[in-house]
Amino acid sequence: IKEGRAGYGIFALRSCLQVIQTGAYNEKKGVREIEECEVAKMAMIRALEKGWPSIVIHSNSKRLIGMFNQNSSMDSLVKTPLEDMFAFKDLFASCPCQVLTNDMNISCNSL
């Protein structure tokens, strides 16, 4: 997930960092973690529409990553968006969330 002037970007990469799909999310709700949840949820929906059995979600928010991977939505601020993500997560064979690495940030910034 990339934040910029236009909002957030969504990109699908193969393991070799080859970009296979991009998208954008422009709605701003003011709370970064809620926005990241909404963007991740949108990416999950797109992956399901494409029939992809497994995906990896990358985020800059270590807190969000921890809550997602532990299926824990104890933070009331992001409880509803995270619970939506948990429901979509169960539809994939594998759907971990990981920290966005520098090499992926470079690929994203070049889009």
Order of helices and strands: EEEHEHHEH
Helical content band: 40-55%
How many structural domains can be distinguished in the coordinates?
Answer: 1
Shape: globular
| CATH fold group | Nucleotidyltransferase, domain 5
Note poorly predicted spans.
Answer: none
- Number of extended strands: 5
Query: What distance separates the N and C termini?
Result: 12 Å
Which strands sit side by side, in order, in the main sheet? Answer: 1-2-3
Number of contiguous helices: 4
Mean pLDDT across residues: 76
What's the quaternary structure here? single chain
Q: Based on the structure given, which CATH architecture is correct?
A: 2-Layer Sandwich
Q: Which class of secondary structure composition applies to the elements?
A: alpha+beta
Summarize the structure in words.
The chain has 111 residues and is of the alpha+beta class. It is built from four helices and five strands. Strand 2 (7-13) and strand 3 (19-25) form a beta hairpin. Helix 1 runs parallel beside helix 3. The model has no long low-confidence stretch (mean pLDDT 76).
